[in-house]
Amino acid sequence: MNFKRLFAAFLLTVPFTLAAAEPSPVAPPERAAVLSAARAVMTQAHFTTLITIGDTGQPQARVLDPSEPDSDFTVWLGTNPLSRKAAQLRHNPMATLSYFDRSTLSYVTLLGSATLVPDQAAKDKHWQASWAPFYPQGSKSANFALLRFTPTSLEIVSLSYKLYNDPQTSRPVIVTLP
Asked: What whole-number distance in Å separates Cα of residue 73 and Cα of residue 151?
């Protein structure tokens, strides 16, 4: 099935109310179920888009290969310490991670901050073999920097997990993270 047909099918399944009708109350989803769904979507999507704030205030986005989220949804990423994203994060640590899983028409957005972690033990612990083509000397490479993304909130919309946008405002399901 092509993406347009799949997306149209998704829209048809999203609950909605007519303007003239009284909206029916919908129980909010349980936090544990939302977090479980978010973790599954992030893992299935695999890649993420990291959005930072550039020098002119323009958001800058790039696709990265992240770690799987920790229990608190901390995500670890590799980068070059001389990259634009590293410089941008040194200036302003506010950042966003966005995951999209096309197969389930689900997305997860994490809002928070990202910082460079210089500790070699942390670099070794969070090193991923999939980063080796970019950093052939591994976690000890001078051109490898470890980023820790610490989320403050999570947003999710997922057809598969029945987590839908609010029908009137399009607001996703939102969870505040500790």
From this structure: 7
Start-to-end Cα distance in the chain: 39
Closest CA to 79 of 21, 126, 32, 26: 126
CB burial of residue 147 (10 Å; 0-12, 13-18, 19+): buried
What residues contact residue 66 under an 8 Å CB cut-off, 6+ apart? 47, 48, 75, 76, 77, 97, 149
- What predicted TM-score, i.e. pTM, was given to this entire model? 0.84
Cα(100)–Cα(140) distance, rounded to whole angstroms? 31
138-172 pLDDT tens trace = 999 999 999 999 999 999 999 999 999 999 999 99
Average pLDDT along the chain: 89
Condensed to tens digits (0 to 9), the pLDDT of residues 36-68 reads 999 999 999 999 999 999 999 999 999 999 999
- Type of residue numbered 154: L
Confidence of residue 27 (pLDDT cuts 50, 70, 90): confident
| In contact, 115 and 147? CB cutoff 8 Å | yes
Show the domains of the chain with their CATH numbers. Answer: 47-176 (2.30.110.10)
Q: How far apart are CA 90 and CA 92, in angstroms?
A: 6
